[in-house]
Amino acid sequence: MTKHVYVITGGSGGMGKATAEIVGKKGTVLLADISEERLIQTKEELNAKGITEVYYQTVDITSKENVAALAKRASELGTLKGLVHTAGLSPTMADSKRITAVNLVGTGIVLEAFLPLATEGTAVVCISSMSGYMAPRQGPYVEVLKQPLAEKVVETMEQFAQGNSGAAYTLSKLGVQLIVEDQAWVWGERGARITSLSPGTINTAMGRQEADKQKEMKLMLDITPLRREGEASEIATAIAFLLSDDASYITGIDLRVDGGTVANIEKAKIGVNH
After folding, report:
1. Residue 211 forms part of a structural domain
2. pLDDT over 80 at 212, yes or no
3. pLDDT at position 114 over 60
4. Quick one: which of 15, 102, 155, 265 has the most CB atoms within 10 Å?
5. DSSP-based helix, strand, coil % in the chain, nearest 5
6. Which residue would you say has higher pLDDT here, 96 or 219?
């Protein structure tokens, strides 16, 4: 029987690790991240929890060579059952160009490399953000966002972001949602599904870093109907559902897991910083 392989980019982050804990009970896990030290630590933590089939590879998702090597490793480990693309940068972590390169172009590179591995029953979940709902879906950037591997896409998007890392983040996360919708057909031709998931304010290291540095995050929490942050495990269970055969007719959509924040924004009429 062929082994099912689950590839998780950003695998040593809070959401990646929580997802690995669940899917690691169903198959082999291949974690990818930029820091080998953190990957080793994550593998040890998962092993201690009884998840034994854990492999890792250091990857810069903006490098086509790195991502191609990751796809090759995945193909050697078994059949691609799930691809979870959580790797990304938040607004305080980099400048606007780097955020676009990682969040938008990186998503394009990952999907292009793994499409040939897709087969009947493969599922992809790309992590977007509720921030993607803060940018209008009609705009001159929409067609640009759907083509993350087009020439000079970072420079083109910089005309809209104009050096603002928050704007670059919002647009790149809208891009993830648009790419998923746009690519539902090509993945479907292989019997595979592709979705995105938009977390709200989540209690992870990255989430805490943003909350500490951005007052808007506090405002967001104030208007969240469930009145609390989400936990990484709550994102992971939603990802696991989207990957599972229980979600076999779900593709080309974005699932918001945000405690109701986006649904309540208009009502709350707060000034959201784009």
Report:
1. no
2. no
3. yes
4. 15
5. 50, 15, 35
6. 96
Angle between helices 215-222 and 205-213 (to 10 degrees): 110
Residue 141 designated active-site = no
Task: State pTM to two decimals.
Answer: 0.94
Which pLDDT does position 219 carry in this prediction? 79
**Of 202, 236, 204, the residue nearest 19 (C-alpha):** 236
Residue 226 lies in a domain: no
25 is catalytic: no
177 domain residue, yes or no: yes
Which is the catalytic residue, given 17, 43, 81, 173?
173
Of the candidates 169, 218, 249, 267, the residue annotated as catalytic is 169
The domain spanning residue 121 has which CATH number? 3.40.50.720
**Residue 57 forms part of a structural domain:** yes
Q: In whole angstroms, how far apart are CA 16 and each of 33, 87, 128, 157, 186?
A: 10, 8, 13, 27, 25
